[in-house]
Specification:
mainly alpha, elongated
């Protein structure tokens, strides 16, 4: 029975909003289109945001935004207050207004792109993040965010380019290196992906990076190295997914005894996992422990009577058993 390795599909780090901290509120230029009194009120509101008192700043900024709807600085500041709270739907119109009024502001496009990303509007997010990257091609954070949006759009080739640019501009962190390696792996640049993963400092290695390294070593034909990485992933994080990936790696190479030992331990830890039980049954079958395999297949079929694959495997297993067996009745 063919078993497929679990791939590392999740990104290491969600997109981070380019908040006012990236462009200090006090650094906003004076705007001559508003009155001196309103300019002073705006600056005071920004100082309150800078001090962590956004609740006091919000009504002032909302009043100013109504009075000056074409002022991108006011719209951006108010949108970021809502975004910082996670209120993306409320933030979006203000961030869109800011981009419309200041189309050449890389920061405005980056913030709008991030808000769209948070709302699940990934294609629109990529458009805004790409605009931000064109306007500020040396912003590593924007490029990294753009790469993540490309990955979610199923475009790893463009993601590779964005991640590589980000890594060239700033000291790469573990999350960026992981994402870059994942994109390289998805474009079948396996050896390059392995080299990128090797750049992650030892004290920053996660179970995700170890699992991805296992996938890469398997593609390179290095079975023992793949096992070691999968074992390390399970040590760092003894999750159901990591135990499953390790079991599947053993199954791929017909290492039945090791697969059985790992799966038996994992099933005790995660008894509700059907795929772990299936992996255990396959390992037992491969090791010719047919009565034990029949028992597990029968249990799976009892839980899911309509599953034709379980029924087929139980039938095959029972065909290998001589004499009566309660699980084959």
């Amino acid at each position: 029975m063919a078993a497929r390795r679990l791939e590392a599909l999740q990104f290491a780090l969600p997109l981070l909003l380019c908040l006012l901290a990236n462009s200090r509120p006090g650094a906003y230029a004076q705007n001559t289109t508003i009155t001196a009194a309103d300019q002073a009120a705006f600056q005071q509101a920004l100082n309150q945001v800078d001090a962590g008192n956004s609740e006091q700043a919000e009504p002032v900024l909302r009043r100013l935004a109504g009075r000056y709807p074409s002022n991108d600085q006011i719209s951006e500041a108010l949108g970021l207050i809502y975004a910082e709270r996670g209120e993306m739907t409320q933030a979006l119109p203000y961030l869109q207004r800011a981009c419309k009024d200041a189309p050449n502001s890389a920061l405005d496009h980056a913030n709008l792109g991030t808000a769209l990303f948070k709302l699940g509007r990934t294609r629109e997010a990529a458009t805004e993040l790409a605009a931000a990257a064109r306007l500020d091609p040396r912003n590593a954070e924007t490029l990294s965010s753009l790469g993540q949006s490309y990955m979610l759009l199923g475009d790893p080739a463009h993601a590779v380019h964005a991640f590589s640019q980000a890594a060239a501009l700033a000291p790469p962190n573990a999350d960026l290196l992981y994402n870059w390696a994942l994109a390289l792996s998805r474009t079948n640049q396996t050896a390059a992906a392995a080299k990128v993963l090797d750049r992650i400092p030892a004290d920053q290695i996660s179970d995700q990076s170890e699992s991805l390294a296992g996938d890469i070593e398997e593609k390179l034909g290095n079975f023992m190295s793949a096992v070691k990485h999968d074992q390390k992933a399970a040590e760092i994080n003894p999750s159901e997914a990591n135990f499953y990936a390790l079991t599947v790696e053993f199954l791929r190479h017909w290492t039945w005894d090791a697969a059985t030992t790992n799966a038996e331990y994992a099933v005790k830890k995660y008894p509700a996992s059907a795929r772990l039980q299936l992996a255990l049954a396959v390992a037992l079958y491969g090791d010719k422990r047919f009565p034990d395999a029949a028992k597990v297949f029968d249990g799976l079929l009892q839980r899911d009577p309509a599953n034709s694959a379980y029924a087929d495997m139980l039938g095959r297993t029972c065909g290998e058993i001589s004499g009566d067996n309660p699980n084959c009745d």
